Amino acid sequence: MTQVSLGENEGIESALRRFKRKVSQAGIFPDMRKHRHFETPLEKRKRKAIAKHKQKNRSSRY
C-alpha cells in the first residue's frame, strides 16, 4: 500500500506528484492492467509464448 503524507506547507499538487511517482516505482500500474480482466489459461499460455518468442528474438539480435 502506497501512502503519502502531506507536509505542513505542501500543496496538493506536489503531494499528488509524489504519490504518482511512488505508485509507478512500486509497479502497481502494470499489475493493475494485468489483472483488469479475467484471463483464461489458454490466453495466459499464448501471452507467455509470445513474450518468450519476443525475448528470444531480442537476445539473438546482438
Map the helices and strands.
Elements: H1 12-26, H2 28-34, H3 41-61
Provide an overview of this structure.
This protein has 3 helices and no strands. By secondary structure, the protein is mainly α. It has one domain (12-61). The longest helix has 21 residues, at 41-61.
Brief overview:
The chain has about 60 residues and is mainly alpha-helical.
Secondary-structure element string: HHH
Radius of gyration: 19 Å
Overall morphology = elongated
Give start-end ranges of low-pLDDT stretches.
none
The percent of residues in helical segments reads 55-70%
Give the helix tally: 3
Mean pLDDT: 88
Strand runs, count: 0
Domain module tally: 1
- Largest sheet geometry: none
- Measure the end-to-end span: 39 Å
Strand content: under 5%
The structural class is mainly alpha
What are the salient characteristics of this protein?
62 residues, mainly alpha, 3 helices, elongated
